[in-house]
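User: Sequence in, structure out. Go.
Assistant: Echoing your sequence, followed by the structure tokens.
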Amino acid sequence: MKALFRENIGEAIVGLLVVILAVWFVLFAWERTGGGERSGSIKISAIFPNATGVTAGTDVRVAGLKVGSVTGLSLDPQSYQVKVDIALNPDVKLPSDSSAAIASDGLLGSNFVSFTPGGSTTPIKSGDTITDTQGSMDLMALIGQFINKPSTPAGDTSAASGAASGSAPGGAAPAKP
């Protein structure tokens, strides 16, 4: 057995280095992508009517800059709205009357939570709840409303009757030349 170990010592060392490198890479990626909460982070929650596209790990931004991440989602049993738990960077001092909205990076981009700072001098603290929120837009529903918009029926000329009958604005008869 000792002879086998001596013959393969180089392979064992290389294998150990590969495992250590893989563990380091996973920890590095976890920290860089916001998977782990920063120590001392400000833990708040926000109540949204619709949180489509938001999951744990979703970015939280102020003016386009990442200042935190979503740590969890749950359904509020009283209001049937989504309670989004958020961990904010402790260096960012948002006013307590800030508002939150779910926005998108673009037409096909991912969603993120966008904070708009308020005017209060009191900073937000751990345990606070943001209630001034705007849920995510349902793009397919908006497109469906536009496509399924009822057109003017062929027999209904009430919208064009003013122009077709030649009446002037206000119901007065047009002047004859």
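User: And one key feature?
Assistant: The chain has two domains: 2-32, 42-137.
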